[in-house]
Design a protein that fits this description.
CATH topology: Metal Transport, Frataxin, Chain A
Order of helices and strands: EHEEEEHH
């Protein structure tokens, strides 16, 4: 299993979330993304619009969006 990224580039993180079913809704000081689930509910995701995301920030985003670390790493490494 690959290691969790320490300083992840924003573009690569956004692409990983898009692979996990999220779509970009809004981009300003923060990036807002949304995933429509099969049961009709929506999962929101908000992250700072920084060039590089620290690992602690990324872990918090994953826990708030309910994404497992392994699922994210698979999408991130593609």
């Amino acid at each position: 299993m690959p290691k969790f990224p320490v300083d992840a580039p924003r573009a690569k993180v956004v692409r990983a979330f898009e692979r996990l079913g999220f779509r970009l809704v809004r981009e300003g000081n923060h990036i807002a993304m949304l995933r429509e689930n099969p049961d009709g509910t929506n999962t929101p995701l908000t992250m700072p619009n920084h060039r590089i995301l620290k690992s602690s920030t990324l872990r918090t985003i994953l826990s708030q969006a309910g994404i497992s670390r392994d699922d994210f790493l698979k999408a991130y490494e593609k």
